[in-house]
Amino acid sequence: MRAQLDLPRRVVFVAAASMVAVVALLLGFILWRGLQLFVADGIPVSIILNPTWSPADEPVSFGILPFILGTVGVTVVGLLISTPLAIGLAIFLSEIAPPWARRLVQPALEVFVGIPSVVWGLMGLTVLVPFLRQQFSWVGFTVGFSWLAGSLVLSMMVLPTITTITYDALRAIPLEQRTASLALGTTRWQTIRHILLPSARAGILTALVLGMTRAAGEALAVQMVIGNRPTIPSALTQPVTTLTSQIALDMGDTVSGTPWNDALWTMAAVLLLISMSSVVLIRLLNRRRATP
Amino acid sequence: MTTATAPIRRAGSRRAYRADRVATAVLWALGAFVMLLLTAIILHFVIASIGVVSPSFLFSDPSRTSLGGIGPLLWNSIYMLVLTMLISIPVGLLAGIYMAEYSRDGFVTATIRFAEEAISSVPSIVVGLFGLIAFVDLTHWGFTALGGALALTMFNLPLMARLTEQALRAVPPDERAASLALGATRWQTIRHVVVPLGVPGIVTGFILTAGRIFGEAAALIYTAGLATPSHYDFFNLNITDPRSPWSPFRPAATLSVYIWNTNGEGLGAFVTQVLNGSAAILIAMVLIFNVGARVLGRQLTRRLTAA
To answer: Fold for domain B55-306?
Structure first.
């Protein structure tokens, strides 16, 4: 009996291992295509730090820096808006909200997560962008499509992600820590600030890294509101562009094997490297905690 | 907590007490803000879709000269969802069973878990680009519904495996022990005891992932294609005919892809209406999937615990 082949075990193992195969193929294919710009087209690697993107007009230049900086800029400003809101909301849900409020806000957050990216983009395009153009043209929002519009849309999209993970981190803190602190005569806010938030630090950082990854990889909603101008980002009021936006726009219009098309694959490889490093970063952040 | 307030008030300085009240007010305001925002978003689309969304809007063909409908796009969204679920449910379920019931701490499990996390963090547009290489170019299929469904499966799979694993790990070990003590094999125990007990959690989780798939667009634009279908002949049941709406080997732009693709084409009067109506449908589906998952999960739990 013992020597018999455990067929179900084999089958479920293959299903689980298929995920490893998928990751390996994905990394292999994208990185290989991403390298063609340097290998097949003979363009130096330093092009990544070149600020000029001019793929069609002479002199041709495939500088990727505007896209990298655009992605970084839109993501960072988006997180700056989102983080205080999200952490505050998580504290509210975990420490302050009475049960009825929690029963209301938690399902709302679940719906928030579910709102498709293109719906956010459409809202940005039909509500936010015209609003910025009409009400704030005096600050410099001449077209409405702007860095800030992209960041605002992103901040809404990552809000539930950061909130949920921060909330989980706060709930994981034993009740005794709260009661011990309160027994010393502190106010609830002092307990939150000096006891709970420091204890939840690893969880909150994880939430921020995940939010950042999601924001940097978000494509369509950002593309719809950001104006897609391939210049080094200089003002929140002006159109900029991101790695994902340019890929979404140009991949279908360029011929495979041309340097222009290869440059888009290089951008995809950069995105992939960003997301892989975030996985590693989250692992390092949570190293001390037991694995599930 | 009310009984605890008095001593705190005495012990803390006046400033600390004021800070506490301000913080509490701000945090309440945040909670209210999120609720208001969500209500505003939903109301915006409800109002924008008044006079647009109707049965004929849902089922008729798109038109360039009048309001028209979104029938073929909605069909594609549902078709892609079903196709993706057909592929990813069995694989995700089996992978989850492995992780919950068979995996042992070690290099293999750690690698699988790393892969799980890695795919979840890859931007969906990059998954779409992988699909472009693997399911469009290498297979010579061109843009197909099947290619799109495979791309969707890729980032749905780790989520489903994780959800299954969590649901199965929540099944009390006593249930397994009792079954094994009766002489059942490990697989019989999993099939007839563990998985049925995990079903409520699994079903709830899977429906929520369905909502995500329904709204996804970035992974589809370069795998299932962008071209808006003008008309489908549903009596054409020949699934090898690329013109048949039942065929997996045809381009299949979905509702979400349509919303994105239209944004670049300049917004005419009808177009804005159609887009808002389409977005309202997407939001309605998210709400339906959410409520459905909750209700179904609760009912399954009740039925299983009563039986």
So the answer is: MetI-like fold (1.10.3720)
